[in-house]
Design a protein that fits this description.
With about 230 residues, the chain is an alpha/beta fold. Helices cover about 35% and strands about 20% of the residues. The chain contains nine helices and ten strands. The protein has helices spanning about 15, 20-25, 65-75, 95-100, 140-150, 160, 190, 195-215, 215-230, and strands at about 1-5, 30-35, 50, 60, 80-90, 105-110, 115, 125-130, 180, 185. The protein has a five-stranded parallel beta sheet, with helices on both faces. A three-stranded mixed beta sheet has the order 3-4-7. Strand 5, helix 4 (about 95-100) and strand 6 form a beta-alpha-beta unit. The two termini are about 35 Å apart. It binds S-adenosylmethionine. S-adenosylmethionine binds near residues 109, 111, 132, 133 and 140.
Length: about 230
Amino acid sequence: MKIDILTLFPNMFEGFLTESIIKRAINTKKVEINIIDFRKFSHLKHHQVDDTPYGGGAGMVLMCEPVVEAIESVKTEDSLVILTTPQGEKYTEKTALELKKYKHLIIVCGHYEGYDERIREFADLELSIGDFVLTGGEIPAMAITDSVVRLLDGVITEESYKEDSFSNYLLDFPTYTKPASFRELSVPEVLLSGDHQKIKEYRLNEQIKRTQLRRPDLWEAYNANKKSEK
Ligand SMILES: C[S@@+](CC[C@H](N)C(=O)[O-])C[C@H]1O[C@@H](n2cnc3c(N)ncnc32)[C@H](O)[C@@H]1O
């Protein structure tokens, strides 16, 4: 997969691309990630890419020209163009599983007040990472990239992500590591028993309890999915 991220702040991605699983995925050629500064596509003095809003109001608005030209410089027939915006469809694990099927993602990071409305015409999908407002699309672009890349074949084992929260409409089960006893807190006996069947049952039970308690909305989706499977 190839991911092109269009941004005004390329330096923000330095740590993201050079650490841990993303770094390994790049080094083993599971993914190619390019950071493109759309300031380079400005036709104006001082590489200006934003201007005041027509009709007045606070903040600066990203101009069509540099953003659209940056998109067009990398777009092919295999591309999916994603606009990061708090007004987009809410991003979930299900979206990540859909995105992993594409050969090429182009992720556009907004900044300041947001985009000239006409830029929306050049996007295939608008995504929000939650009902809160960030200063720019860089953190959403990293969140989307990270969650998609970890699902690509060979990046982490399928077993790891198949048991993660959301993959089967349930939150993940609680995990523990050594020591077996820490202050007054002990690891549940069953996990030390070596009985794999019992451990499996315990974990599923915990997943169900947690989901019912913390995420009734997910629990409803879990039951609806079970019903439709029947
Ligand atoms: C300050 S925000 C603009 C908010 C815009 N005025 C609005 O209220 O819809 C600047 C940029 O940050 C990014 N952004 C902020 N919050 C986001 C979110 N929850 N999900 C995705 N992108 C977000 C977008 O790229 C957005 O264009």
